[in-house]
Amino acid sequence: MAARLLVLSSILTFSCFAEICYGAVSFSSLERTLVVTASHRQGLLIAGEDKITVAWGLNQSFPAGTDSTYRTIKVQLCYAPISQVDRAWRKTEDHLSKDKTCLFKIVEKPYSNTNETLEWTIERDVPTATFFVRAYALDQHNNEVAYGQNTDAKKTSNLFDIQAITGRHASLDIASVCFSAFSVVSLIGFFFAEKRKGGKGQQ
Amino acid sequence: MEISSNGAETQPKFALPVDSEHKATEFRLFSVAAPHMRAFHLSWVSFFACFVSTFAAPPLLPIIRDNLNLTATDIGNAGIASVSGAVFARLAMGTACDLFGPRLASASLILLTAPVVFFTSIASSPVSFLLVRFFTGFSLATFVSTQFWMSSMFSAPVVGTANGVAGGWGNLGGGATQLIMPLVFGLIRDIGAVKFTAWRIAFFIPALFQTLSAFAILLFGQDLPDGNYKRLQKSGDKQKDKFSRVFYHGITNYRGWILALTYGYCFGVELTIDNIIAEYFYDRFNLKLHTAGIIAASFGLANIISRPGGGMLSDAMGKRFGMRGRLWTLWTVQTLGGVFCIILGQVGSLSASVAVMIIFSFFVQAACGLTFGVVPFVSRRSLGVISGMTGGGGNVGAVVTQLIFFKGSRYSKETGITLMGIMIICCSLPLFLIYFPQWGGMFCGPSSDKTATEEDYYMSEWSSNEKDKGLHEASLKFADNSRRERGRSVHSQTLPSNATPPANV
Q1: Which residue of chain B is at minimal alpha-carbon distance from A130?
Q2: B231 vs A: CB within 8 A
Q3: B386/B95 Cα distance (integer angstroms)
Q4: How far apart are the C-alpha atoms of B438 and B456, rounded to whole Å?
Q5: d(CA B99, CA A64)
Q6: Kind and range of the H or E element at B8?
Q7: Spatial CB neighbours of A24, under 8 Å, sequence gap ≥ 6
Q8: For residues B498 and A146, what is the distance between their CA atoms, to the nearest angstrom?
């Protein structure tokens, strides 16, 4: 019994360590070695129409060879703190596997040592919220090893607002109204039919 | 097939054996014979459709909350709104059934709430979302018409079973929708619609289903085995009753209030769990939303056998031990449900939690079925009002429980669940107070008073004026048929059930 307990507990502990090895990276352990900027037109950005120009590259003040382990770069659209209030499904957690700050992928491509830019049209499933841009550098095991973002550490500067599409269409609105009217009218029609049938006397 | 011995004219032939009120004494699940089994299938399918519509939003919330910019507070409020609308709607529905018949009452409600489901497709803000969930929730009042219709079509030996299966299979909609809506949404999105449009189109499915089920009721259903209320009232076979009298006799019957309270702690708990359990598993055990959703659905899907099981158990206990057996079984099963709820809040491992949740779901849903094995006997004249009070009480229980234990962050969800279990046990105790003079209660036997018969109990709802006009005939027949609630050992000693009752008329 004791031996079985020992085996079970060691398996559990081992799997915890394995998890740490294989992906439960914590954000606070990452170094901010990338420089990321995002530029866009003035005012409220419209999903599906407006574009954001994202640029990223290694911060040259770091020694050469810092990026030796970087294999992939993943650029994401992330929620600013104000859009996370009272919304636990967007919560920031230190463990990156549970972190829900950055839910929209802008681009994921192999890492190259040069500065890169991309013009990205805001996708139509982006909700109405305030955002910033963050880039993660991933190693060969797809674990995050470094990051960069276009805002400061407290996520207060360089934020931008995006307005989502409504998802509504005129045809949907018309269909809703028509079907609703049909339900009510058919009910009234049915009552009239019943009354008339009843008026004709007993069957 | 039996022909009633009352009445001289030729009796209509029924596919199932019937009693003197032409209510079926057998329940044949796979038949669609008019009027009994057809009414059964129409009522459970339409109730199922209403449940699908009412709980269609929760599985799609991850999309809707982004589209409409909802906060957790908005979502919580909409959830409470969705079950609070039905509180008064159920009471109103009960009265409407007594006055206009279940066919017209339920079809009208379904067709009047279908537009709201269509309008969900054009919701554009947290306020409009709350409003559509609130008004869609009114459709859950079809529960009352379902139970009323079954109590009108099926006789005492099988009324618990009929009520239990119809109610349980309707409640199934709450679980099925957690599987249906994401599927429909996925299909529409794969066809090419963008996410924020796909969920809107998806809502047309429950709305159309609801509308079609209402048409089916109007075209193929009838209120009573002998016909519809209007026609029977015209021919004089059914008396048109007065709203004020029906309402008065319903709300002054203390048993209705006790059952309303206790139903709040089986059905109300079921609704609460429907709203919180997916999040509970998702947060506590770090499951994927999809997995948490399947577990949540299985709670509702247990209804396919648990609630009918409760109804059948009630009928079996009623056959052997009479009304006292029905009451004792109800109290026992509901209290055990409370015990398992406490355990659910305490267990810390995923597999134990799922196992306890499934056991808990069986007990709590069986208690719902057992409750509606007792309700048909509380009143004959005001059956609808009593059904409405009990049904409404269920929703009140859901609202109160969610407000006390599951709003904000006062209690963790597991503490809330444990406390809810304790509340179930406490709120089931009033069952001890239910007493029928002719059958007894949980602790007391039937009264030995000469005036404590089934006829006296049901005739007490009619004044002598009304009896002079002969308005009470249906209640008299029912009293006669309900004599089996004395239980097997006593039943054989009672008067022959076909004799016309003495001139109390």
Answers
A1: B69
A2: yes
A3: 9
A4: 9
A5: 86
A6: none
A7: A95, A96, A97
A8: 89
DSSP 8-state assignment for residue B439:
T
Residues in chain A within 8 Å Cβ distance of B66 = 125, 127, 164
Q: With an 8 Å Cβ cutoff, are A129 and B69 in contact?
A: yes
Q: Which amino acid is at B462?
A: W
pTM of the predicted structure, to 2 decimals: 0.83
Hey, what are B281's tokens? 């598993």
For strand A160-163 and strand A144-149, is the pairing parallel, antiparallel, or unpaired?
Answer: unpaired
Tell me how far the alpha carbon of residue B353 is from its chain's centroid: 27
Buried b (16+ CB within 10 A) or exposed e, B73-102: ebbbbbbbbbbbbbbebbbbbbbbbbbbbb
Closest alpha carbon to B462 in B438, B450, B449, B478: B478
Which of B71, B115, B215 minimises the CB distance to A180? Answer: B115
Of A124, A173, A182, the CB nearest to B122: A173
> Are the C-beta atoms of residues B504 and B453 closer than 8 Å to each other?
no
**Tens-place pLDDT, residues B373-417:** 999 899 988 888 898 899 999 999 999 998 888 776 677 778 889
Tell me: the pLDDT tens digits for B155-184? 888 888 898 899 999 999 988 888 888 889
- Summarised one tens digit per residue, pLDDT across range B476-489 is 888 887 888 888 76
Helix axes of B303-346 and B289-301: crossing angle, nearest 10 degrees: 120
